[in-house]
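Q: Entry one of two.
A:
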Amino acid sequence: MLDSDNCRSDMTHRRTSRQESRETNVARILSAAETLCAIYGSGKTNVCDIATYLKMSPANVYRFFPSKLAIYDGLVARVLEDNFPVMQSDSGQSTSAETLREFMLGLHRRVLALMRDEGKIFELLTIADDERWPAFEIHAKRVRDVVAELVEEGVRAQEFRQQDSLRAAECLCASTAALWEPKAIRNHLRRSLITPEDLISFSVEALRNGPFQCRR
């Protein structure tokens, strides 16, 4: 019985070690892709470049990612998770409208920061957005779900009128897309006559009970 227990323990240890080794290699490949992409852009960086940077063979890279697209989709997922973390719960001091406005403005500020500080990484996000890569679709759904949750909280507090919170979230995300979707934000900055604060306020106020008031 003791030998059987030891065997199971050894097998579990080996599986854990293999998993940790895989995660380490995946992280190394994504970090190399991010470094090279930030310098040269994703269009000028291929699997061979990443392998050379890591001093490994392209075949070894392909053990962990089936294609260049899979590497960059993984990188997009990591960049989005690092720069757009899940919203922390509010202390209860803010109204639902205030929390929702701040959440959307936070998205806008982080996209602007990426565009300003990490131009080539931002271009990668633009491609992922435009071509509907899985990582960006997950991000967009995560944004929609946070907005839907905040709308639902506002409905429960009778701050927002009774409505389908998911549909309301989709409408609000669409109406403010030019502020947080990479493929649209440059055109908005170039042509818009309205501030981000006013656009978000206009969209949020449409959810409310009572007379419409666009906050200034």
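Q: Entry two of two.
A:
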Amino acid sequence: MSLRRADPGQAATRARARMVERLRGQGIRDERVLAAMMQVPRHTFVEEGLAYSAYDDTALPIGYQQTISQPFVVAKMIETLRTGRELGRTLEVGAGCGYQAAVLSFVASEVYAVERIRSLLDVARENLRPLRLPNVRLKCADGTMGLPEAAPYDTIIVAAAAASVPVSLKEQLAPGGRLMLPLGGADQRLVMIERQGNVFRESRLDAVRFVPLLTGTE
């Protein structure tokens, strides 16, 4: 029986609380990130038939050959980007079903989320509508080009793996800002780039598995 049919209130809240405790056990320490993960009903961002798995630590299909990232990866990326600072104006590349944008809304002042697949962006809009998040804006756009009209960004987070860092994203990063994305093909690793003036300092982090970052819109 899915969470939606069983009890969209108490059952989902208990499952979310167990997820947050698991994240603590996995080393997530940022209380604002944990609180944000607790706030967002992940089961409403996946198909009803997958709702029973929504709070497992696993990626799930959301259609269009895309996935919703596993909770630990979402929490870890945001926690790392927040270390010693606030996220400020944030660009998310690869909005998918809207889940990560929702989590970001609780820890960033503004969230601009772009998605290249128009039909998937429509799904994200529907998923986000009940939450009434005033600081989230969605747009269909080629994520490799960023979103220049709202730049610069204090934080850029990319939810798809690139072969190299898109130049447009680096250019749209504010001084002192941070960009995180998975780099690689078969072997991928999270990379964080920090802009200090016109110098970009790169740090390589955990091994991950993301869908590829594609160009264009459809």
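A: Comment on entry two: The beta strands are 60-63, 66-68, 89-93, 110-115, 136-140, 153-158, 173-184, 188-196, 199-208. The radius of gyration is 16 Å.
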